[in-house]
């Protein structure tokens, strides 16, 4: 008979007794996540839950405990999801509550979907002063697709601008619950937190699973430890995982030894075994973060499960941009910084590239614009690297005359007009929730960005949900800033990709004195090309410093120039020393200067300032 040493109880149990112990323990496990829009109080409420369950002592406590980065604390957003186990006694019984925290931003929606898949219930947190926002609805639908039990929480009830009756009606209309089920709370004041804990225990069902079945566990997150390698966080659906087990990650086909398994509290707590229904971590000495993919399934090598957890996909970058060091001598330092950053962020992709204007750098793929901002800021803060970002663009599908598909991530990869048959660009389905008074300006903005109106629903008498289909390339520049401006900060925006559609795109080149500046090239819709080309030439004319010769700034499509501006030369007065005398002497000096300027123009280089590369993003600035 096979025996197992249970580390926690320090007792030796047989297989039958062990199964009974595991099944009893599963009845008192609750796995849940928190769904909330940015700044609706998710991290603050999580802090109160940690304090109420005595998971963290008052001495060790600090605000936003689950947000470990300074960047998260400053911006008030969750960038990296976390998981934590809390023990709570309710009516004399011990319960184990596994909170799987999730990022709220649309850029990290795949990580959110995997975290939701690891749970049986979700807290839906809504700000009592702001009401329901677009990203809340998006993640809520994701949770409902996974049949999660939703516990609505009306947060920030202590604010003077709270509208409990109106927002409660919104929640009731959205999820079809009764008004009594909505829990009023204040994460800041700690009011209502006990009712939230009670609802988690009473409303969320315990996990289902078979302890004797082959191991099936879902990886929902991973972090990188510089001393121990990649630490993968997982939820066990069936079976058990012991320390020193030989396991396989099903999608990557890689095999590892479980050097350590354990549970996640404020710190990692090693255990001898993690069983069905529970959440834990595994350390197996993996040095490459790309080997651990969120959504992958862990199973045993000897007795593998025949069905992996559904929903796995490789995370695909949506936005591409070049990152270059300001000083070209810092290229190797930037490479080392990118390698270290990728260990903590497996969704970041990069490859070396060179530019005539900027030297050596990297072509990087990001999940979205927020992801790009965060990577740039982390490079500056954590690695002291000042970098230049080129114009962000998306991934296009170009079809050549031979029927060959070419993925275009960089304008320089675009096939020539004589080779190109057609081109497709990625489209998104966008949801915007705004006040009724801003519907007109919001619709005008979306139509200006080549959007197609699909639906318009009044959530309340004063709040409208607008649905659009629009090209992803139109939102990577300044769409979100413009949306916030025209709605005075009241509009919320969410989107998801819906595939590729044919489009009339062309490559717009920027030339300085006849030389292509590849870092300023852009793929753009033909209808917008002339206006865009004219505006960028005007902007560059303001930014490029004058030389002692004329600088021609041109925008071109292929060999056709569509816009031109000239930075006039600085004129040195070479005739100043001539006091009177014959005109031929002055003419001789002017002719000599003219020849010198011509020669200078042939050999002179135009220095493009850093601001010029970001100018494309701010073409609507009147300055």
How would you describe what is shown here?
This protein is α+β, with helices and mostly antiparallel strands and 623 residues long. It is built from 14 helices and 34 strands. An eight-stranded antiparallel β-sheet has the order 13-12-18-9-10-17-14-15. Helix 8 packs across helix 9. The longest helix is centred in the last third of the chain and has 21 residues.
Give the gist of this structure.
27% of the residues lie in helices and 33% in strands.
| Number of helical stretches of at least 4 residues | 14
**CATH superfamily of the largest domain, please?**
P-loop containing nucleotide triphosphate hydrolases
Share of β-strand residues: 25-35%
Radius of gyration: 29 Å
Gap from first CA to last CA: 81 Å
Global outline: elongated
Biggest sheet overview: 8 strands, antiparallel
Low-confidence stretches: 1-12, 67-76
pLDDT average, as an integer? 77
* Gross CATH architecture of the largest domain: 3-Layer(aba) Sandwich
Task: Say how many strands there are.
Answer: 34
CATH class term of the largest domain? Alpha Beta
How much helical structure, as a percent, in the residues?
25-40%
Helix/strand/pairing category: alpha+beta
The total number of structural domains is 5
Q: How are the strands of the biggest sheet laid out side by side? A: 13-12-18-9-10-17-14-15
The third-level CATH topology of the largest domain is Rossmann fold
